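Bug: token stream looks shifted between consecutive jobs. Job 1:
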Amino acid sequence: MPATPVPPARSATFFLASVIILKKGEAIKLRAGETLVYKTRPHWIISAWAAWLASIAVWFFFASNRVTSAEDAQMWLGFAWTVSVVTLIAAKVTQFYRWSSRFVFTARRVTLKNGILPQRSTGFPLRNLPMRQCAIVYSLVWLIALLTHAIPACGWGPEGHKVIALIAEQNMSSAALERAKVILSGNSLEGVANWADDIKGERPYTARWHYIDIPLDASTIDLERDCPHGACVLVKTEQFLAALKNPRSNRAAKAEALKFVVHLTGDLHQPLHCENDDDEGGNLLRVIWHGYPDDLHWVWDTGLIQDIDRDPESLAEELERRITREDRLAWDRGSIADWVLQSHRLAQMVAYQDLRRERPPVIGRRYEREADPVVELQLERAGIRLAYLLDQRLH
């Protein structure tokens, strides 16, 4: 279940917006008589070409799943926009177009009919606006497409992982919490909660460690079927917990193991990280969310959590108040495999429900009323269980 690829519709918008800028990189200058010279403005076109090429590069990195964290996505989107703006400024300031245009760009002559310029010569669709306003409008369209480009799904979204880490910190023993801070060189669990997502761009082989592909209709775990070569959230969480406990592990190895444990414990409580219905954990299942198309995985990663509360601190505080002593005792029981199967059952009963009946399924209020308590419950369980696991390994 790799990270969510870029939705085709948004990719097309992102790409075509740059092409439109090319179309509008034109100026019209009046000459004597009834003739106009329909001439390009190369500094705009140079910028548009830079934006176009940068768009292709960003699209490639998204579509190939090389961008697998919000931070990486923001970096590449910022890069694409910066390239176009810097190129525009450089081309204008250096007047590069003065000599390049004679080789690259051509002028065309069109004749006025009764003093009216044919509409087709001013471009489509903003025919009646001057070139500068057209260029500004299309640049803004390109920027909006850029900024609204989908960011890949990465387990619980950043908010969810922070909530889990904050709950864990409130429920760990003081000794274990202090030991964790020493291993992390003073950093908190919240501070490293999304580290495992952040490094997937540099270490793409770790992407498979964040989920386990249990068939949606299955009722048991088969590691040979669901976790080939031991590359899944179940096996890797157990391995990193063992590394934390191992006295032979050096500090760097323990720090990395701890960061993975903090993150993967959250991932194994996300129901869509513990199933596969031939849709890459819901990444390929298109749904209608708040009137717009999206994928089921993103809805569970981020959409539902943001609807509940966008602020991790306030959400963690609210969830922490609800957790009872009985909850803590009940949730500490069982193995990691038991917790994975629990998440899998929630995917069967709640996440997918009757979504297969509609194409595309609509995530409505009834669905949210059933899903929201499950999201909150899984965040609470993950926080308490993370505290329990670290108390055991860090004493």
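Job 2, same session, no restart:
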Amino acid sequence: MRGLLLLLLCAGCSDGTSYLVVRVASSHAVTVTAIDVTATHNGQQSITRVAPATGFAIPPQASFALKFSPERSGEVLVALKAWNGAVLVGTASGARTLNHGGVAELEVALDGNPNSIDLGADSAVPIDAATVSDLTVPNDLRLSGDLNLPFPTFKSAASLIAGAGPFSVIAAQLDNDQNTDIACANVSANTVSVLIGNGDGTFKKKVDYGVGVAPYAIAAGDLNGDQKIDLVTANEALVGNVSVLINKGGGEFETAVNYATDSVNGSAPFSVAIGLFDSDVVPDLVVGNFATDNLAVLLGEGNGKFKKALTYKANQHPPWFVAVGDFDDDKKLDVVAAEQTLNKVTVYLGDGKGSFGSAADLVAGGNPSSVVVGRLDSDQKLDLVVANRASNDVSVLIGKGNGTFLAPVNTPAGQGAHAVTLGDFNGDAVLDVAVANDLANTVSILLGHGDGSLKIPANFPVGNKPVSIAVGDFNNDQKPDIVTADQNSNGLSVLINSTK
């Protein structure tokens, strides 16, 4: 058995107390019923057993916290023994130097051989001032923004069959029964798979609809004003077009109608978003044309049909992924594009007439592959979160409300951070971040503090090469669940939120 134990110390509580937060994960299902923690400081030793009534079911990731009084500082030696009943699952040990205000990580492997200890590369990192003699375990303490709410947990991922090469996924109510459904674009099959939800976290067998060649992206919205959610895909190969699927009702769709995204073939649209870009209150489309290095706007006619694409030269960089929002508070929709080639995102301010004025480049991390729009702090201005695949992190850019943003703050995610979305996963009324990591085959959850900053992530296993992620309440329990499109598995992974 192979596992991962991540130790963090979170400081900054109002009384000066520090907390050693322990997170336990494993690549194989295992139950840990108790963990003995031995801490030694200046010759003083404290032993604490963490043994919740239900144990730790791994996966999903479990967490607990140890409380330290803030009287002294110095090196602390920590040794852990993990038990499953009377069976010793594994051991870990390491040293930490306690200094006020720090955060530390320690990665170790839980092996079946209790004598096998892997300290990792990080053996001594400053953390908060503490004395080990007062080590205690608060009864209800869990890792969160204020250490008073539960860290989110998810049931083990359930696999669903999609088409060949699912590359983009959305969650929406497609058949008007109040249950959340799923649709994904299958880049290798040239189809969209629709999976109707049963309302209990399970789904009916997929139904496939043909679209254009190599659909890399999918978006959902009511395109003809009939109160039914329609679908549109961006199809990268050959001509380069979008396919519009009009909802007939009951979760069934009409034959796709294609619209070119440029006046020349081979525009390679990799992304599409829906928004109101002119003044007629009819949904329009914006597309990022990667090969012809432009944005295309297709103005809607209100009946599910669209006018000829109008193209606008991108700001020196080909757009890979597009999202929309009103970034300058002028009641006109703007566009943000993630541009992989130059490690930037670009904001295009809309003029309310279906066109764009000034554009501004913003620095992100390495190889930005996805961007999502939301409010991560309390000022009611839209912010950006960018998934950076090459640097394995996310960039948070806090909006000023005038179309400009603060410098990015990067937080580690997982290997191959490919796609990002938002949701309140622990019920504290603060938006959190979820990232699909296509090299680690995990979803990272980064809890928000409400000020734009994020916690170090917890990771949950999903299928092979998750390249897209969406949020929806799949079992009607008022908690946001997660679905990923797993390209190499030809399927989807559903993570049901089990946070207490």
